[in-house]
Amino acid sequence: MHPTPYLEVHQSRTREPTPYEIKLARTLEEIFTRVGHELTDVVAGLNARQVRTPDGEPWTERSFRDEMHRLGA
User: Fold this and answer.
1) Contact, 59 vs 52, CB < 8 A?
2) One Pfam match, by short name (predicted)?
3) N or C, which terminus of the chain has less Cβ within 10 Å?
4) Own/partner pairs for 29-36, CB < 8 Å, 24+ apart?
5) Rounded to 5 degrees, what angle do the CA atoms 20, 38, 65 make?
6) Cα 25 from Cα 42, distance rounded (Å)
7) How far apart are CA 23 and CA 41, in angstroms?
8) Which backbone phi and psi does 45 adopt, to 5 degrees?
């Protein structure tokens, strides 16, 4: 019997994450753990922690969706 194949997290990357992406990911993990999973919670959590969009603007639901799409999440 062959083991079930699996995907290592880093196998799907085409490059190393940027400092911005690392900060965003760590902040999202904290928000998911401490605040919630709803989009409104995530946007409020990012803004409360002053983690801004790549353009330096506060997050909106639309900008968060757009950024997740851009990042391939």
Assistant:
1) yes
2) HTH_62
3) N
4) none
5) 45
6) 12
7) 18
8) -65, -45
